[in-house]
Specification:
Shape: globular
Order of helices and strands: EEEHHHEEEEHHHHHEEEEH
Radius of gyration: 23 Å
Mean pLDDT: 91
Helix content: 25-40%
Number of strands: 11
Number of helices: 9
Distance between the termini: 52 Å
Strand order of the largest sheet: 1-6-3-4
Low-confidence stretches: none
Structural class: alpha+beta
């Protein structure tokens, strides 16, 4: 009998699990609304273990009785999955369980527009720096996703520019843009664009703030840098994958850092470090303004 420990999905994504064949599988699920209660229950159950390893919940090594969780006021759902059945887990929802015997199943992560705030929350939780650094690594760069979603919106508008024409009335222009975005997206456009603007604006604010700080201490920068494999490096300190820019030191070329941790990656002086800029200040601000203009049209 194979068990799977309590965990949330990478980046707090949805997951879809399909049972092809074999013995059933028992699932226990804890909704997002009870996540903090579960965290507290686990810490109370093994306080010494948590003190020694505060990031234990990100390591897929923890089993805890559902009965104990319910005694601690945690809401626990139960399901038994059989052949030909699907199980869907929701964002930021702990789940665990066990197989009743040999079986064959497969799973995939996916995201809906409603997931986006959870993705931002995952980044905040993952990269809170402890004595051991960030709590866990990213699977993909969240800022890169936000930027590319904005780029997709731009392509949607450009693809349908003939529908816009040259309206003289700003209200008519907004109506045209709203119709294009609404008709082109396979989900409700208004809440998606609103959330995208909120999340991108937050990322842009942090990025530009730290760039200004690095500029004030005369850290040299290099513009128009690109990633050879289209995947940003991992920050040596917090394990984030900084998309807009990253810091490198000539004495430690294997150690990349996000702008926030430019001077935590090593003790080398400022003149040995440099900021590699992938997306310029103007590019970030232009994207934020573009998404904002679409949000106003909605």
């Amino acid at each position: 009998f194979t068990s799977f420990c309590w965990h949330t999905e990478d980046h707090y994504l949805y997951s879809l699990n399909y049972m092809h064949k074999g013995h059933p599988k028992t699932w226990y699920g804890i909704p997002n609304s009870s996540k903090e209660g579960f965290d507290l229950a686990l810490k109370n159950f093994m306080p010494k273990r948590f003190k020694k390893n505060p990031d234990i919940l990100y390591q897929l090594i923890t089993l805890l009785s559902p009965s104990y969780c319910m005694e601690q006021g945690v809401h626990v759902n139960h399901a038994v999955q059989k052949e030909g059945e699907f199980i869907v887990t929701f964002p930021n929802a702990y789940h665990g369980g066990f197989s009743h015997g040999l079986n064959c199943a497969e799973a995939v992560n996916f995201a809906l527009p409603e997931w986006m705030p959870f993705g931002t929350r995952a980044m905040e939780d993952y990269h809170k720096v402890t004595k051991k650094g960030g709590k866990r690594s990213d699977v993909f760069a969240h800022d890169q996703l936000l930027y590319h979603l904005g780029s997709k919106l731009s392509k949607v508008i450009l693809k349908n520019k003939e529908k816009i024409g040259k309206p003289e009335d700003p209200k008519q222009l907004s109506t045209c843009i709203k119709a294009i975005v609404t008709d082109s997206l396979p989900f409700e456009a208004k809440p998606f664009v609103k959330t995208l603007l909120q999340d991108f604006s937050k990322s842009a604010k942090y990025e530009l703030h730290y760039r200004q700080w690095l500029k004030s201490v005369n850290l040299k920068s290099k513009d128009n840098v690109s990633y050879s494999n289209a995947q940003p490096p991992q920050c040596w300190v917090c394990k984030n994958m900084p998309y807009f820019s990253h810091v490198q030191c000539k004495n430690h070329p294997e150690r990349f850092a996000c702008p926030q941790h430019a001077f935590a990656q090593c003790d080398c002086p400022c003149e040995d470090k440099g900021l590699a800029v992938v997306v310029s200040d103007y590019g970030i601000q232009s994207m934020q303004n573009f998404i904002g203009s679409i949000a106003k049209s909605m």
